[in-house]
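@channel sequence for tomorrow's demo:
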Amino acid sequence: MTPRKRKKIGTLYEHAAKTYRDIVAVIGVGLVTVSRVIKMKQDTGLVSKRKGKGGNKKKTTPSDDALYLLRQSKKDLRKTSHALNTNLKEKGIQIRSSTVWRRLVAVFQIA
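structure tokens (generated this afternoon):
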């Protein structure tokens, strides 16, 4: 369920004084979902569990990617993303080889 729908459920319940069944008809979600969202709103004051951005935080910044990965890959054009990943692990940065590859592709598209 989208955060927008969660917010609309909370608004309809509190400000429009709609019943659960009215909210179900308006929003188009199940009765249990409406009940759960309203209960969460009453318990925590929030309609969403997430705060801020979802997902994992990047372990390298875009400037790190541009400087280190680009520099290392230009030194030895035959170096694989796995080899670059090994170099990063030696520096104390642990990311997957597929992430290194994806960031290299992004850097080369910009450059």
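heads up for whoever presents: The longest helix spans residues 31-44.
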